[in-house]
């Protein structure tokens, strides 16, 4: 029970202080929202702001996802409401109709916030580009500063900053000094005490200074005071104003003009509320529910719109102040709303003593604290790298002042997307080279290797790096189409897509177009780095491009693509692979007399192996020299811990392996595994010893042939290495 009493006391204290804190923000923000309507509507604007703080804040507190969040008018949202009213006026609406259209726009924005929350799209809202956010915040700060100039000079607060040059003679000389004193007190407040927010001390101190100056007869030099705001009667007129729009033929056109404002209101309101909830989470160690938070904020704006209120959102300045003073639950927000309601019902005469100059000084300090200059500090350090982002931020700020906030955000997003496309449209073709230094790990008979060495100019390798989308596809197609002269003999183009992180439909169509172009000119297109199970290639099947692009031309790795390209270069030539190579056709037997050939082949042991069979393992004693007649065999290093087996070479029919068993009798240095069903002829050390006794000269020739093949393979490898440098 003691804990409950402390909780109630903390919530009551937090709610009371936040109500006092909200007062100097609610009044000028309401005047700011209704400023396009003129001075006669300022009392209605203040009443609309109170409606948002009370009705919207109460609904958002009860339905929201953060128990510490306290919602109400915010500078950015008030300016958006002013933009909605100004847009309606520009479309020919009367002042009362403009207020109703702005309320209907707010209701639609609140409904959109509810949909965003229900769909769980709160994270998407946070994807608004940072330069756009920075420009938006700076634009809001500039609009606040410009909007407070008239009140700072003691002129009617509804006077536009553009009209100030014609009213210099009406400036109240003490109003700027009063505003400066309020600003100085707000700046120095943290040094005086940390128990109360600086805004509260500045408001109290500035109001006291104004009261003292007016008591000594300086009222004419201090500028106007607040006109008593309308009471609950304005809230009752809200539903009537909305109902008055029914059947208005101009309403669809008005709403069409308001659509940018509606969308930006929903996005900015959601973003600011979520960021406020995050700051409260960081201070309290709690976690809010983003879906419920957006649902509560949307319902709050819907409720405020029905009563004639302006747009609102969660504000960390309110929630953090309540938390620091003991507020730990939704009761703090409810108490704040009830106190503001009591002030509006019975304390309106007290509001008539508030000075516009004092509130203008507070709003100027709020605007100065809002400014986001981090991006421009980065611009000074590296203009080339951050210049484009700073341009976006500057554009958004300028359009905010010259047009409106909604168009500023849309223009900023559009420019950001354009810059993103330009950055992503950099050349994607990373490297292009011929096949001189490229070779697969497939080991072929020496005659085929020599033939391939002379055919490498018919092979091209192109490596892509970056996204393959509509912004880069055409450039890639043009670059690759120019690789071959028109008179070039048929060849193979290998496209390494291992570094391509994203492929859209335009990229897939480009690949299909490139395939068609290569086939028309007699060339083959092979794609490496394509995994049909990966998300980026999942579009191949539904797009109907898997079959035409595949057809034996898609490979997971570059080595497999190189191997297929070599097979294509050999196809139809004198060294194309045959189903099975007879033992006496191996280069090992070159230079042997016929009798020695017959004796050697008779001493070979024919062995058949299924796919996956291990012919020998690393460390085993050498059982002979293997002549691969049919199928493929891989030479691998065995797996080590979590590392898979390492493929060293893939042997084609007509090659030999395991020769060290005859040369020095050493153990096996790697594993030999049948990739396909294969046939080998094995010359064991015992059979070779018996052959050497009968044909010593032929045995010496065999050893020379083995040494010659090893030497030539070493020369070919060295040549390829030099060509690839």
Automatic annotation (TrEMBL):
Domain STAS: 461-565
Domain Cyclic nucleotide-binding: 588-688
Keyword Metal-binding: no
Keyword Transmembrane helix: yes
Keyword terms: Membrane, Transmembrane, Transmembrane helix
InterPro entries: cNMP-bd_CS, cNMP-bd_dom, cNMP-bd_dom_sf, Membrane-Transporter-like, RmlC-like_jellyroll, SLC26A/SulP_dom, STAS_dom, STAS_dom_sf
Gene3D superfamilies on file: Jelly Rolls (2.60.120.10), STAS domain (3.30.750.24)
Topology with respect to the bilayer: Multi-pass membrane protein
Coarse class of the protein's main subcellular location: membrane
Cellular localisation: Membrane
Gene Ontology cellular component terms for the protein in this record: membrane
Pfam families: cNMP_binding, STAS, Sulfate_transp
Transmembrane annotation, as ranges: 12-35, 41-63, 75-92, 98-116, 128-151, 171-189, 196-214, 234-254, 261-280, 300-321, 333-351, 357-379, 391-422
Protein name (Swiss-Prot/TrEMBL): Bicarbonate transporter BicA
Organism: mine drainage metagenome
Encoding gene, per UniProt annotation: bicA_2
């Amino acid at each position: 029970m003691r804990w409950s009493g402390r909780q109630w006391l903390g919530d009551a204290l937090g709610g009371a202080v936040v109500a006092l804190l909200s007062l100097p923000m609610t009044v000028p923000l309401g005047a700011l929202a209704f400023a396009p309507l003129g001075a006669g509507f300022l009392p209605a604007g203040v009443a609309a702001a109170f409606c948002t703080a009370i009705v919207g804040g109460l609904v958002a507190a009860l339905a929201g996802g953060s128990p510490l969040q306290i919602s109400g008018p915010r500078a950015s949202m008030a300016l958006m409401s002013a933009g909605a009213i100004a847009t309606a006026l520009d479309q020919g609406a009367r002042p009362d109709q403009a207020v109703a259209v702005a309320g209907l726009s707010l209701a639609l924005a609140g409904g959109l916030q509810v949909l965003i929350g229900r769909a769980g799209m709160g994270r998407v809202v946070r994807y608004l580009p940072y330069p756009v956010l920075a420009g938006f915040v700076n634009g809001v700060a500039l609009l606040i500063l410009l909007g407070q100039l008239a009140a700072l000079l003691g002129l009617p607060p509804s006077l536009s900053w553009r009209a100030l040059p014609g009213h210099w003679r009406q400036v109240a000389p003490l109003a700027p000094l009063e505003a400066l004193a309020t600003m100085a007190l707000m700046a120095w407040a943290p040094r005086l005490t940390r128990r109360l927010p600086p805004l509260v001390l500045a408001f109290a101190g500035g109001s006291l200074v104004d009261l003292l100056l007016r008591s000594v007869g300086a009222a004419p030099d201090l500028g106007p005071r607040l006109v008593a705001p309308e009471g609950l009667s304005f809230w009752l007129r809200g539903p009537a104003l909305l109902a008055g729009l029914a059947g208005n033929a101009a309403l669809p056109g008005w709403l069409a003009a308001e659509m940018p404002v509606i969308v930006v209101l929903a996005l900015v309101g959601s973003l600011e509320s979520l960021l406020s909830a995050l700051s409260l989470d960081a201070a309290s160690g709690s976690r809010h529910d983003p879906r419920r938070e957006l649902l509560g904020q949307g319902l709050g704006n819907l409720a405020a719109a029905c009563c004639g209120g302006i747009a609102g959102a969660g504000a960390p300045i309110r929630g953090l102040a309540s938390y620091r003073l003991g507020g730990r639950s939704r009761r703090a927000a409810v108490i704040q709303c009830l106190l503001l309601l009591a002030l509006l019902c019975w304390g309106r005469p007290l509001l008539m003593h508030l000075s516009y100059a004092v509130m203008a000084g507070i709003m100027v300090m709020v605007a100065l604290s809002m400014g986001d200059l981090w991006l421009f500090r980065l611009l000074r350090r590296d203009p080339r790298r951050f210049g484009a982002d700073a341009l976006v931020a500057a554009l958004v700020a300028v359009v905010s002042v010259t047009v409106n906030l909604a168009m500023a955000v849309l223009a900023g997003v559009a420019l950001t997307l354009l810059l993103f496309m330009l950055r992503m449209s950099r050349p994607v073709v990373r490297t292009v080279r011929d096949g001189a230094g490229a070779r697969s790990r497939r080991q072929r008979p020496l005659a085929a290797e020599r033939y391939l060495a002379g055919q490498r100019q018919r092979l091209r390798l192109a490596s892509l790096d970056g996204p393959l989308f509509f912004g880069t596809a055409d450039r890639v197609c043009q670059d690759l189409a120019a690789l071959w002269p028109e008179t070039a003999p048929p060849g193979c183009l290998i496209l390494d897509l291992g570094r391509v992180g994203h492929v859209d439909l335009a990229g897939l169509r480009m690949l299909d177009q490139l395939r068609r172009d290569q086939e028309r000119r007699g060339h083959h297109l092979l794609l490496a780095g394509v995994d049909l199970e990966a998300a980026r290639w999942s579009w191949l099947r539904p797009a109907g491009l898997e079959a035409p692009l595949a057809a034996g031309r898609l490979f997971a790795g570059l080595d497999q693509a190189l191997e297929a390209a070599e097979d294509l270069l050999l196809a139809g030539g004198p060294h194309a692979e045959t189903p099975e190579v007879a033992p006496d056709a191996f280069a090992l037997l070159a230079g042997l007399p016929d009798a020695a050939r017959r004796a050697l082949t008779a001493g070979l042991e024919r062995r058949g192996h299924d796919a996956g069979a291990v012919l020998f393992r690393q460390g085993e004693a050498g059982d002979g020299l293997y002549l691969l007649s049919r199928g493929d065999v891989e030479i691998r290093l065995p797996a080590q811990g979590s590392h898979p087996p390492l493929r060293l070479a893939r042997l084609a029919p007509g090659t030999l392996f395991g020769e060290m068993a005859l040369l020095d009798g050493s153990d096996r240095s790697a594993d030999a595994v049948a990739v396909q069903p294969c046939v080998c002829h094995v010359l064991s050390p015992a059979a070779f010893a018996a052959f050497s006794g009968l044909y010593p000269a032929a045995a010496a020739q065999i050893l020379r042939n083995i040494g010659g093949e090893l030497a030539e393979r070493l020369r070919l490898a060295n040549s390829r290495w030099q060509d690839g440098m």
